[in-house]
Amino acid sequence: MIRFLFLLLLLAAPATAQDRVNAIQPELVAEGPAKPDGEVDLAIVMHTQKGWHGYWQNPGDAGLPMKVEWQLPPGASVGPLRYPVPDRLTIAGLMNYVYEHDYAVLVRLKVPANASGSLPISANAQWLACTDEVCVPEHGSFSLDVPVADGPATDQARFDQWRQQLPRPLAAQARFALSGDMLSVAIPLPASVAVGKSYLFPLDNGPVDYAAPQSFRRTGDTLVAELKRKRGEPATFAGVVALGDAQGFEFKAIPGAVPTGGTEVGGFDVNAMWWAVLGALAGGLLLNLMPCVFPILALKASHLARAGGDEREARRDALAYTAGAIIGTGALGGLLLAIRAGGSAAGWAFQLQDPRTILVLLLLVTAITLNLLRVFELPVLGGSARPAGSFATGALAAFVATPCAGPFLGAALGTALLLPLQGSILVFAALGFGLALPFLVVAFVPAFRRKLPKPGPWMATLQRVLAIPMALTAAGCAWLLWRIGGYPALAVAIVSVIALTALLFVFGRLQRRGLSFGFATLGLSAVLAVLATEKLPAHSAVSARPVAGAETWSEAKVASYLAQGKPVFVYFTADWCLSCKANEAGAIDRDAVRDVFKQVGVKVVAGDWTNGDPAITRFLESRGRAGVPLYLWYEPSGHVEELPQVLTPSLLIDRARRRRP
Question: Thioredoxin domain: from which residue to which, for each copy (predicted)?
Answer without folding.
Answer: 530-661
